[in-house]
């Protein structure tokens, strides 16, 4: 769920995919010119959704900076300018590059969107890209516990107890949702800023603002955590379900990620705490029409789809248990299908009234989750 908020910040200028990016670099010489040209080609291919950019990666790797940032649309697809900031030799035939994406608002205002870092290697007569994550964490400690490969800084105090809890939880998920027992690479950074920095995202608009964050890349089985969330980031681990139910309507998967008794179920808060805030918010806005498929209101710039979708998950479990939920995730993927399911299977005729009434029970001390996640 990491950077959905960032999309909102830039939604006023990201309506269309970029077709022209301005390239500048001030220090071209015999060594830097081919690297500059290589980067320019990569930006051009990505900006035009030309999939041949994948051939520019070493050993068929993928761009983890994009997949792990959760930024949508990604930097290359925005209507932006790009400036290569530096090319820095690391070791023989290996370089670190930094590049800036920015938007010119008018004659006097420039909006910085991001500063990104990549590794470029020269091998067998050609340049290739490597992910910054591999370079930035090469001196970190590594520990395997069951299905999880943990990576963390040397000054971090690792908790084997929490790691075992995380593994127990994964086995529980696998059992409940018929998942595969696949290994996870789990990175624990000091905080949200450090978390973005290790993947090569040196600057974004939320730098210094976010207290809690995380991300799970279902394609690469990589999870990003923080010292605060630690070895057992339940909210992100639940996203393992996304790998199995790839065509599910996102509200079922979103709701499951917060439908648990963790004290950090959503942005470092428990489900009870989140619903207390939500109930106060909607009580003060009686004219606000709530539903499972229309625009979700925001509380402090954070969307409430996590809250409303947890209500949906709870009602599905109430009506038909886990089997109905899995059936719904296998068959429902559009808003029209979801509305039909809500009205005809769950027998909810007034979504606004139902959401307002049902949300109250989530903040009560005697509320019990219908599955143990």
If you had to describe this structure to a student in words, what would you say it looks like?
The chain is an alpha+beta fold. Helices cover 36% and strands 20% of the residues. Helix 9 crosses helix 11. The longest helix is centred in the C-terminal third of the chain and has 27 residues, at 305-331. Strands 1, 2, 3, 4, 5 and 9 form a 6-stranded mixed sheet that branches. Strands 6-7-8-11-10 form a 5-stranded mixed sheet. It contains 13 helices and 13 strands. The chain has helices at 4-10, 33-47, 64-69, 132-136, 160-177, 192-198, 234-237, 241-244, 250-258, 271-283, 305-331, 335-344, 351-359, and strands at residues 23-24, 81-91, 94-104, 110-123, 126-130, 141-145, 148-152, 184-189, 201-203, 215-217, 222-226, 298-299, 302-303.
